[in-house]
Design goal:
single chain; five-stranded antiparallel β-sheet; HIT family, subunit A; binds zinc ion; 15% strand; 6 helices; 37% helix; alpha+beta; 165 residues
């Protein structure tokens, strides 16, 4: 497997807030740029994954802190589903990703890194990228700079999600 080069990880761990990381992002809109948030509204937010399986990996996350999909109201879940569509379009258009992986890992046994708070993954994929299972099973090398990717996606995010409210 490839070597890991992800310099933001150590910083992230050193600065990890107490409690749920996703609740911290949810309640800290003033830190959106620092935390890699691309969009937020009353039900959910869209954020870059600082532990990306592939460069440009984003997540759609409800503000509601729950590990149970069935705990989300139909309104919130359907709202998130629309954001997933928009996020998929964002990655395909702006990053020219020809393919995507979409999905949720619900529960630690399913591979969820932050199991206590649901999050929906959108991963851009390119030809000769490793397959999804291989990717989640080990570390990957990324030369893309997180901040550069964030700025590029943030610039175009309103075209796909609308304005942050
Ligand atoms: Zn939470």
């Amino acid at each position: 497997m490839e070597h890991l080069y992800a310099p933001w990880r150590e910083t992230y761990f050193k600065n990890k807030p107490d409690g749920c990381v996703f609740c911290h992002i949810s309640t800290s809109p003033e830190e959106d740029k620092k935390l890699g948030v691309l969009y937020r509204d009353a039900h959910c937010f869209v954020v870059m994954n600082r532990f990306p399986y592939t460069p440009g990996h984003i997540m759609v996350i409800p503000h509601q802190h729950t590990d149970r999909l069935e705990a989300l109201s139909a309104e919130v879940w359907q709202h998130m589903a629309v954001r997933v569509q928009q996020g998929a379009a964002l990655l395909k258009t702006v990053l020219h990703a020809p393919a995507l992986n979409l999905g949720m890992n619900i529960g630690a046994e399913a591979g969820a890194g932050i199991a206590e708070h649901l999050h929906y993954h959108i991963l851009p994929r390119w030809f000769r990228d490793t397959n999804f299972i291989t990717t989640i099973g080990g570390a990957r090398v990324y030369s893309n700079d997180f901040e550069a990717l964030y700025e590029k996606l943030l610039e175009h995010a309103p075209e796909f999600f609308g304005a942050t409210v």
